[in-house]
Structures are given as structure tokens and as C-alpha cells.
Specification:
Number of helices: 15
Strand content: 5-15%
Distance between the termini: 61 Å
CATH class of the largest domain: Alpha Beta
Order of helices and strands: HEEEHEEEHHHHHHHEEEEHHHHHH
CATH superfamily of the largest domain: Aminoglycoside phosphotransferase (APH), C-terminal lobe
Structural class: alpha+beta
Strand order of the largest sheet: 1-2-3-5-4
CATH topology of the largest domain: Aminoglycoside 3'-phosphotransferase, Chain: A, domain 2
Keywords: ATP-binding, Kinase, Nucleotide-binding, Transferase
Oligomer: single chain
Organism: Vibrio stylophorae
Number of domains: 2
Shape: globular
Family: Belongs to the methylthioribose kinase family.
Domain Aminoglycoside phosphotransferase: 223-269
Helix content: 40-55%
Radius of gyration: 21 Å
EC number: 2.7.1.100
Length: 400
């Protein structure tokens, strides 16, 4: 039994847990709750009320939940392997994997319920003054440690092959880099009243499209480090003591700046929604001021944190050349700005929206938020190599 894949139902889980993992001992009386909040996986929290011990079971199915379209379960193996690698590099930020069952595409992992979903916390206008330090520490520890500046070059090349993530990279290459600029599959969803604005400022903006294609080329060909690949605010869990980074099933070897840019985009979007839709209040001011200070702190703090880790972890003397280190780090920061812009655009006009935008009830406010985001995203993409100018645009946009 359990030698071939089938989708677990809640009623199947106690026997399956008992067969696979000596975590609870006897499994009578386990409390099981589904936590799934996505389209491609099934996630359950399992608790023994007698001891209060708990864990998470995550299973990848062979089909998308929404459409039934087949999807390779290799993503599950990639996710488990990524978590195991990152847990060694940053154990305080990554849930521990207790067991991975390849046949069933199931990962048993640490329950991190004391941390809350970062997206929903921001939607409640909560602020986390230490977030920039925590996320920069995550980037410096997990990204650099998987490059061929630190790893043996042969080991890194083997990892590139192991983490070749064809189907999920193809999803990103379409939804993030291609469809927002020509809608060749007809899947973009434009807010009524913004059609002409999108045509002028995105589809018909040759300079923007060309820069987006440069960033796509970099995404597809720059096997710089093992990256998360889908690091939005829903993949980060947070409290006032730290963060946990989850769900790296899109992981592959790509540009470090892609993950950083995704984090920035998912800070900017709720801040812009707040700026346009919220009534004047201390909570609104605090939230916007926090985002306006956090984004530059991530970018500039990344440079400092990354260079510090670089000098500690990189052993080759020739790679420690100051000019090279500065160039290497600046390229990552420029990439991050560009990828932030692309993530914003695809969430505004693509078919995969974010809850922050979807919850705007007033049509005129929705139009205003989307246009501000498109303008800001364009600035981030077009001026990513001009130090400071894009951040000036960000601060101006958030200040109304």
C-alpha cells in the first residue's frame, strides 16, 4: 500500500501517518484540518490533542484543483529538496521536513502555526519593523550558499539539473513575462475602463516590452542560484520574532533578484491599495510609512548583508575582487527592481490576481490603484539601472 500515488482524503490520513512516520505514536483521536489555499496542492494540519504535538502534511496531486489539467508531481520532490537545503542554510527561517514520500508526493513538515500569513497581516495594516532585516538575512544565507561562488562547481551544475523545473518555470515564463505584454492566449483580465490605458502604457509601449523581454531572457538563462521562484507574501509567514518561508515548489536555478523583486512587489501593492482606499488614520500613515521605508531598506540592506556574507562564504581570492563583488551585487539589485515591476504588472492585468486588489469594492478606486501601479511598475523596469530614480517614483506614488 502507498506504493503508487493516489489523492488522500482526510479519512485516509491517520492510517497513512501511522504507516509512514513515528511522530504521534498511536493515531487514534488525531484532529485533522485542511488548510489548502491554492490551486495545486492539498495541505492538512494534524494535531494530537492529548500531547498538543502537530505537523503539516502537504500532498501534490496529479491535476490542478480548478481545471483538472494534468501537472507533473515532480514539483513536490523539488519543494521538499529545496526546503531541506534551505533549512540547513537558515534553519530559523525554514520549516523542517520530517519525511518526504516520493511515491505519494507527500511532505511531512514542521507546523509553523505561531506565524501568520504575511499577506493577511498586511491586509489588516499590521507593520513589522524588523522584516527587512529578516528577509535580507534569508536572501544572503540561502541564495549565496547555492551559487558556484560557494559550492563546488560540479556540485552546482548537478543541482541545476536536479532542480530543472520545466512545467512550473513555463507557467512563470507565460504568466509573468509574456502574456502581460501581448495577451497571446487571451487570458488577461482588464478592469473595465482601463483597456485603453493598458493598450497605451503596456501593450503599445515598445520600450517597456523590450525591457521585459530582457528580464525574461535573464530569468530563463541566468542559473545564478537556487531560488524560491514564487516568493509572494502568501509564501511568507511572520510574527514579531521572525519569519518562515514556505511553498518553494517553483524553485529552480535562476537570478537571485527575481525572489527579491517578488517580495518588493507584494509590499508595494497593499501599500498602494491602502494609499488610495483607506480613510485618513494613524494606522494608514503607519502602514504606508513602514512600506516606504522597508522597500529601500531591503534593497540597500541586501547590498550590505550580501557583501558581508559574500566575504565570509566565498573562498576564491579572485572572486573577492572588490570591483567584481560590487558589480555582482548591483546586478542583483537592478534585477530585483525590474522583476518587482513585472510582478506588479502581471498581478494587475494578468489572470492571477492578488486579494489586495480583488477586495477593492469601489470601481473608480480600483482604476486609480491599477494605473498608479502600472506607472510605478514601468518606472521600476525602465529605470532599474538608474540608482535611486525608481525609488523616488515609489515614494512619490505612496505619498499621493
Amino acid at each position: 500500500m502507498y506504493s503508487t500515488h493516489f489523492k488522500l482524503d482526510i479519512k485516509d490520513i491517520p492510517a497513512y501517518v501511522e504507516a509512514k512516520l513515528n511522530f504521534f505514536g498511536k493515531t487514534e483521536g488525531l484532529e485533522i484540518k485542511e488548510l489548502s489555499d491554492g490551486n495545486i496542492n492539498y495541505v492538512y494540519k494534524i494535531v494530537d490533542p492529548a500531547t498538543n504535538r502537530s505537523l503539516i502534511l502537504k500532498q501534490a496531486d496529479i491535476c490542478l484543483r480548478s481545471s483538472g489539467r494534468p501537472l507533473d508531481v515532480k514539483r513536490s520532490e523539488i519543494e521538499a529538496s529545496m526546503l531541506q537545503i534551505q533549512h540547513k542554510l537558515a534553519p530559523e527561517m525554514i520549516p523542517e521536513v520530517y519525511l518526504y514520500d516520493q511515491a505519494m508526493s507527500v511532505t511531512f513538515m514542521e507546523d509553523v502555526s505561531e506565524f501568520k500569513n504575511f499577506r493577511y497581516e498586511m491586509m489588516e495594516r499590521k507593520v513589522f519593523p524588523s522584516f527587512h532585516k529578516q528577509i535580507n538575512s534569508y536572501f544572503a544565507k540561502t541564495a549565496l550558499g547555492t551559487t558556484d561562488l560557494v559550492l563546488n562547481r560540479a556540485e552546482k551544475k548537478a543541482n541545476v539539473s536536479k532542480f530543472t523545473n520545466v512545467e512550473l518555470c513555463d507557467i512563470s515564463e507565460d504568466l509573468v513575462f509574456t502574456e502581460p505584454f501581448n495577451d497571446y492566449k487571451g487570458r488577461n483580465i482588464l478592469t473595465k475602463g482601463n483597456e485603453a490605458y493598458v493598450q497605451e502604457h503596456i501593450y503599445g509601449n515598445t520600450a517597456l516590452v523590450s525591457e521585459a523581454m530582457k528580464l525574461r531572457y535573464n530569468f530563463m538563462n541566468n542559473a545564478q542560484a537556487l531560488i524560491h521562484g514564487d516568493l509572494h507574501s502568501g509564501s511568507i509567514f511572520i510574527n514579531h520574532t521572525g519569519i518562515k518561508v514556505l511553498d518553494p515548489e517553483f524553485a529552480f536555478y535562476g537570478p537571485i533578484g527575481y525572489d527579491i523583486g517578488n517580495v518588493i512587489a507584494h509590499l508595494v501593492m497593499p501599500a498602494m491599495v491602502c494609499q488610495v482606499t483607506d480613510s485618513e488614520s494613524e494606522a494608514k500613515d503607519n502602514f504606508i510609512n513602514w512600506i516606504a521605508s522597508t522597500v529601500p531598506a531591503i534593497l540597500f540592506g541586501f547590498e550590505r548583508e550580501f557583501k558581508k556574507s559574500y566575504l565570509e562564504m566565498v573562498q576564491e581570492d579572485v572572486a573577492k575582487n572588490e570591483i567584481f563583488v560590487d558589480w555582482y551585487t548591483r546586478q542583483i539589485v537592478a534585477d530585483a527592481k525590474g522583476y518587482a515591476g513585472l510582478e506588479i504588472i502581471r498581478r494587475v492585468i494578468g489572470d492571477t490576481k492578488v486579494k489586495e486588489l480583488e477586495t477593492i469594492a469601489d470601481h473608480d478606486q480600483r482604476i486609480a490603484v491599477e494605473r498608479k501601479l502600472i506607472d510605478l511598475a514601468s518606472s521600476l523596469i525602465l529605470q532599474r539601472d538608474v540608482e535611486g530614480q525608481d525609488l523616488h517614483s515609489l515614494l512619490s506614488a505612496l505619498n499621493g
